[in-house]
What we know:
72% of the residues lie in helices and 0% in strands. It is mostly helical and 544 residues long. Helix 18 (335-371) packs across helix 26 (499-508), helix 21 (412-436) packs antiparallel against helix 24 and helix 24 packs antiparallel against helix 27.
Amino acid sequence: MGLLKIKLYGSIIGPQVLSKTNHNLEGSLLIKLPFYFYILILITIGTSVLFFFYNLEDLSVSYDNFFKQSIKFTFFQAILSTSISITFGFILSLCLYLSNIKSQYITTALNFFFIAPVLFISYGVIFIHGSNGLMQKIFQLFNLDFSYSFFGLVGIIYVTSFFNIALSANYFYRKLINIPENYLKLLTANKINFYLALTKYLRPIILNNFIILVSMILIFCISNFTIIYIFANSPLLTTIELAIYQKISFEANILDAVVYGFIQSGLIIIILIPILKLKNNFELLTLKQSEIYRIYKPNLLSGIILIIFCFYFFTPCLVILKGLINFNLDLLFSLGSLTAFMYSFLIAISSLFISLLIGLSSLFITRGLYEKKSQLSNFIIFTIFIISFIPAITLSAILFLINSNLNFILPNFLIVSFVNSFLLTPLIFLFLLPKFMENNKHERLKIIQFKISPLVRLIKIDFLKFKKELLIICSSCFVLSMGDLTSITLFNSNSFKTVPYLISQLYSSYRYDDAFFLLAVFVIFIVFFLYSINRVLYKNVGIK
């Protein structure tokens, strides 16, 4: 019977006036439950924090010069990194657009460099540009007395911008390749050069939803705990996140850590308040692809710039070769390594599963409210994105506080999975929203007419529309969760640690060869995983 409904749904029918009263809502509550559970957790977290402060006899929090300096540096490096990321990302997208490289390879590379483990890129940069790095050895080989250090602000900006240049370039590149062919032919007919087309005629298309890109990159630049953790070599380079970590790990001062976290989250919300006023029109990460109609050809300047960017992106990957040279089979199959790989894998699966349930549930509710022209759809979007305004270390500090009041009854594995999933949910929501809302008005009339239940609609209709997007975002979130180091720094133990944390421990113990070897194995696994997904995507799903 369900199959018959789907076939009827696919047929061409004329416009009819339909009644909502007979619409079958079977399965609606089941789909909404994950979002209700998510809201319940948010309320529980908020209530627990308020209860904690209410029962405190001493509410004094230390706002010393160290904290004030951390606020200044947090937003200074974030604004600087955001500006660099957007500027160079735009330049890179232009060079890629003018190149003859296939779109498939470009988007695959940019996606990888955005979701690559932070530890991999950080240690890769140190391997190339460290005091004993590859560049210094090359200088010594040619008797060149030139030394520099990437620790400090330069290293922080370099690595932070690395990921966000890839995101920014991906955004602009997708805008460029999806410019309508007829529009390009019109530019050709009027002999409009590339520079004039960009600055005048194509600018509205390229800058559509630009504020969302800026907001996302700014959040990512503020929440770069791992990078600061590795490259900060001075108290003056401390961010609020690092200050929170120090308050918990070294001073056992949970009160200050939580207050610092709320201050940071409040500042982020104030800065990003314009994004909350936007309409429900998210096109940032859509996968709409068209055959590229080229009217502008590559030139010498774009080629040189592209080579420089290739050096920038691919040289940190040489750390993989360094790791494989020091092959250590005993380390790979040691109990500690196998356990770390197991926990990383399980955390990635559990985080993805939780975030996917919440994301799909939120999308379902948002679409239902939007179809009813209810303003509550904006509230759903706000509740999803409010968590992304809270950096991972801040959320970890709050959960650490709650767990300490519960005598640490919650297992660390569960807490890390929840932290990851809450930060992944907005990405899933944003990525799938355009396809989920596609043709919702016409589709809703047919759904009501044939009394297709919401659960059947989700499984047999919606999944067919966005299965490509679903596969890509699931693989990306899986990799992001595996490579995360933020929350595990607070919730690790002798028996519970992930691969990134194990690698950082080996590196801190001056076991560089072992650290690079495990890092190489870890990244090779991720590349093989993404390659397998890519093969499935381009073979069976049929993206051209």
